[in-house]
Predict the 3D structure of the following.
Amino acid sequence: MRPSQGTPITPPTREQYRLRKSAILSRHAAQGASTRGIQRLLRDLSLLADEFLKVLWQNSGFGKDMALLAAGGFGREELFPHSDVDVVLMLADSQSAENDPALKNQIETFIGQCWDAGLEIGSSVRSVSECLAESVKDVTVQTALLESRLIIGSTLLFADFQRRFRAAMDAQAFFVAKTLELRQRHNKFENTPYSLEPNCKESPGGLRDLQVILWVANAAGYGKTWDALAKSGLATSFEVRQIKRNDALIKLIRVRLHSIADRREDRLVFDLQTAVAESFGYDAPSKPKAMDSAAGSVTATAAFATATSAALKVSTASVVRSSETLMRRYYWAAKAVTQLNQILLMNIEERLNPQTHAPRPINERFFDKAGMVEVASDDLYRRNPHAILETFLIYQTTVGVKGLSARTLRALYNARSLMDGQFRRDPVNQATFKQILLQHDGITHAMRLMNQTSVLGRYLWVFRRIVGQMQHDLFHVYTVDQHILMVLRNVRRFFIADHSHEYPFCSQLGAGWDKPYILYIAALFHDIAKGRGGDHSELGTADARRFCKQHGFDRDDTQLIEFLVREHLSMSRIAQKSDLSDPDVIAAFAQRVGTERYLTALYLLTVADIRGTSPKVWNAWKGKLLEDLYRFTLRALGGRAPDAHAEVEARKREALIMVALYTMPFEAHKPLWDTLDVGYFMRHDAVDIAWHTKQLSRHVGSAKPIVRARRSPAGEGLQVMVYTPDQPDLFARICGYFDQHGFSILDARIHTAKNGHALDTFQVTTTSEPEEYREITSMLEHELALTIATNGPLPNPSKGRVSRRVKSFPVAPRVSLRPDEKAQRWLLSISASDRVGLLYSVARVLAKHRINLLLAKVATLGERVDDTFLIDGPELQQNKAQIEIETELLEALAA
């Protein structure tokens, strides 16, 4: 189908293009996991598109003074299976498609035929002058034209364009524009390559980061290829080898993504991770081996065949999913790309602006070079390995320094093999690392920089094991190492005045804390044993103990750090699953923590930990539960044994003060309070008691349902109160209403008064905007009261779509039904993947068996629910009925 002069050639068809492309992809797929043929594949796809475009161009009868150019990735002969075929129809300055209807029709026909032939065309029609003018205004256009090449048409026109384009290029301005663009793109992805669904093209460490290097180098005249960059001295031959390997690896992943999804898909989404992994031969869970210490974090291997040997070392009892093996290899490659991108861009910047990079001595080993720490010599770390950790101490303590220079990054990159067991055991290095932890400022930035440069994992070998490790629990959105560093950042913010507005109570406690480094170390080690098999809290405690002994921390500090790592999950679990109004719960937790100091440290770490899992997991209600648990426990630790009677009287007094502000009649509270028992006053704080009293003092014993709603005092969402004659299916009916109207229940406090009325309080959230709350509360009060009064059959649960994450990582439904500590009531615990109508489905089962709900603790962790209910009822006394209830609950959770 080669174009020739003379008669038109039969236009190629979509089916021909599909078959030819499929043949190319099949030929490449036969090579398995090898990355060696990836560049050839992309070039073959480009040549196929060239071939079809030439035929269509020739058939269209364009004049000899026009040219067809390939631009963007197609221009550099890297066409992915479902990428756009970007072309420029270039006209001479004397031509204009707008003023020439025949030419305009000719162009439109050509573009239409391209689509008909199966080419996903991205086209622009411009004269040479228009191309130049547009490239000055838009750096994206300028970048696309920088990589343009001639497909067919006038060579003279293309040569004229290239000459004028190069003459107009401002390399410095282009560099600034592309680096700013890169920074904005990285911000969009939270500046980490370790998101659980990374974009292998756009995310930090993706293909775009490598392309930026070549773009700015090309614009500055330093070369268009990696080998050319090495010849110009911008990159070493070793760095170029690493770049080529990682580039090939990520390109191969992107090709497989396009092929498996059968569309343009650049994200490694959960739905596709397993299929992509299996396309490389990872078709079964495998036991990972130790990371090759000589390979380091940046080699990324030339082929996926060696990827298993690059997996992190874990317990021999542990297995790794095929998708996890794939993702870990991707993360290590992306990390390498991030490091190399930094080094080469800084080298280019320094060459473009030599006058702004005059070094200023810091000490005999380091310089301050344009605000970057610069090594005095390239072989500094080989001559003096102690200087490796000193680099980060200098970074922390030198005013005005904001990073590491390209020379320093390159020296660290080449010094990885020096950080071995002997390096880790060296007392000087241990003292330096301890100093870094003890510094007043810069701890978060130093640790992140150490992780980015692979120094943290080399020095803390246990940390290296969790770099790039995924977490399959639906509420962590970061890999384990990034979660740890996020928790460290959160802890650090409690000690910085500029962040005191975020969590004032935590900042207040932080201001009175004398040793922040204790919390920093606990943050570093709290999840460090994830993925090894066994209890990661216990394994992490042993790691923390060993670290403290090696680094000379005293006994008291070591014991507190061990306690924090071992117990880092306990406060969250108790706050979200236990009845905090029960004095025995508070007494048991107080005995567990022992002292106010241990309690405060655990509270700060717990808040930081929950906030570091995902932006969706933390909410004001969780914050209130944790703060309540802290305050109740603090009171118990102060020598005041939990006294239900004294606590009730204190709450009543506080509530009466608030009631007095409502200007209600004298003793207007008595009719309601006389119907309420100690349990009510123990489960509600004074603010809620006063609100209930104000709303219900004139409606005690009402036969009609009373529903009131207000903005939640705890933060976002609404607080809803229901007062009505009790009925067996009341909780299910209320949950049904919330389910049908899109409300999520965070908490439910259920109480039955002495007069047979239910007084229930719910914390709910909605997706509506805050300014709509007044309308929502009015609607809710009217409709929910009507729903309760209408004693009809319970509606069926609504059915919503299950999220992609739930589909990829489903939680096995679990139900636990056991008597409480006093053997008077029962604790029902459920866990399952979250979905619309889940809580209502549970409530329907309880209503069917006439189970009384006394308390509901609803905990949603990302897309997993972990709820606890305090219940009673006659059927719970029969073993056969218990089994039936548990079976029906499992069916409801799995529906």
Summary: Residues 287-318 have pLDDT under 50 and may be disordered. The chain has 39 helices and 17 strands. Residues 358 and 369 are 6 Å apart (CA to CA).
